[in-house]
Design brief:
Blueprint lengths: L19 H16 L7 H12 L7 H28 L2 H7 L4 H4 L4 H22 L2 H16 L6 H22 L6 H17 L8 H7 L4 H5 L3 H18 L13 E3 L8 E3 L18 E2 L11 H6 L8 E8 L4 H7 L4 H8 L3 E8 L9 H11 L4 E5 L7
Parallel strand pairs: 4-5, 5-6
Antiparallel strand pairs: 1-2, 3-4
Length: 396
């Protein structure tokens, strides 16, 4: 490449590496000098996302956590180092103005030495990507690096930030998650949303480099818009939250067929018109103080549940649905079985037809075991069961 020729040589190298310890110390110092400005947006951000992914893994072992975090730190160190070397090789003249402390303009390394390290780090980065099972994201990042740094992709704000920064952020976020847990559609959607935001706000960082960008002919958004850039970005940042807040579509109403359902214990000629409150958000369930009954919306006084159903002769409800908590209370099966036979309903509930909705307890997922799951599966297959009732605010 042109940038390896002697025409582009910089100041003499200040370090003379004579021993192994000198060499290692020099390389560490060089890595720091090339990358320290961008740790928060790459190594730290990527590792935090890997930790987030590990939190979704059931019973993640200590060994898995340590390996994943170490793997993430190493991967993103190479991710950043290879990219920054390429970017600074391409911006020596600009850095002499904007960032003279960088390794190339300061003479810490020659242009040829930086080029050799870029080749070495890129090959090592690709090898780590293959070993980690994220080769496609890794090769995409290398392609973005080459296009941005050596093919003019950084010369215009659209390709530099909206295209390359957004795509690069997707690479970072997807790899970071994959190093800790399997990637799902939800994580991909979040990565896409965050990356689009990154591509927009990344234009702000070009404010500090306007003088150098003008000299090198780079048309960043601050250069193109001039003094108006600050107002444009301020308007975008102010409007952006309202876009996400107001674009939620109202759910379509449920089909009419859901409101005309035959109870499993009823004959086809006895249709029960129900509101079908399958998922409820209330704190107390039917076996205790509340029963959900057609024509009865007030709180029913605390008393045995069958007495509450009868109320008084001739004034009882036509039908209802109970929330039966499994596996905490075995009474759910008594409620459910009594819905299937006319004689049971007449004896126990005054002939009231009702549905059975299962309440999910305990609310905390970590309390579930095989016995709990077996009870839940049994309840869900009961002929009188129509849905699941859970407390949204307490569920996890």
């Amino acid at each position: 490449m042109v940038w390896l020729s002697s025409v582009h040589s910089t100041q003499p190298v200040k370090n003379c590496c004579r021993t192994l310890s000198d060499t290692v110390g020099y390389e560490i110092r060089l890595f720091w000098a090339f990358s320290w400005r961008d740790w928060s947006a790459s190594i730290i951000a990527g590792t935090i996302r890997t930790i987030s992914a590990l939190r979704t893994v059931d019973s993640a072992s200590t060994g898995l956590v340590i390996r994943s975090i170490a793997h993430s730190l190493g991967y993103f160190a190479l991710f950043l180092y290879a990219f920054n070397i390429a970017g600074q090789i391409n911006s020596v003249d600009e850095d002499r103005i904007n960032k003279p402390d960088r390794p190339l303009p300061s003479g810490l390394v020659t242009l040829k030495g930086a080029g050799i390290r870029w080749y070495a780090m890129t090959l090592l980065f690709l090898a780590v990507g293959v070993a980690s099972g994220v080769f496609l994201w890794t090769i995409l990042w290398v392609f973005i690096t080459v296009y941005l740094c050596f093919c003019g992709g950084d010369k215009h704000w659209f390709t530099k930030n909206l295209v390359c920064m957004s795509a690069g952020s997707v690479c970072l976020l997807q790899v970071a998650w994959a190093l800790g847990a399997p990637i799902t559609v939800r994580e991909t959607c979040w990565a896409a949303i965050l990356s689009c935001v990154t591509g927009i706000v990344a234009n702000v960082q070009d404010l500090r480099d306007v003088d150098g960008d003008k000299i090198t002919g780079r048309r960043t958004l601050p250069v193109v818009l001039g003094d108006n850039f600050r107002w444009v970005m301020a308007a975008i940042i102010c409007v952006a939250p309202s876009i996400g807040k107001n674009n939620k579509k109202k759910p379509a109403p449920p089909p009419e067929s859901l409101f005309h359902i035959l109870h499993p214990a009823s004959s086809p000629s006895r249709a029960i018109i129900s509101r079908l409150l399958v998922i409820a958000r209330h704190r107390r369930h039917a076996h205790a103080p509340r029963i959900h009954l057609r024509g009865l919306s007030r709180q029913v006084p605390r008393r045995p549940v069958r007495d509450r159903v009868r109320l008084r002769p001739g004034a009882g409800p036509e039908w209802g649905w109970w929330t039966c908590e499994t596996p905490v209370r075995a009474i759910w099966k008594e409620f459910a079985d009594a819905a299937l036979a006319d004689e049971e309903r007449a004896a126990r509930w005054g002939g009231v037809s009702y549905w059975f909705v299962m309440g999910m307890h305990p609310h905390e997922a970590w309390l579930y075991d095989d016995a709990v799951e077996a009870d839940i599966l049994e309840a869900m297959t009961h002929p009188g069961e129509i849905g699941l009732d859970y407390h949204y605010e307490s569920s996890s």
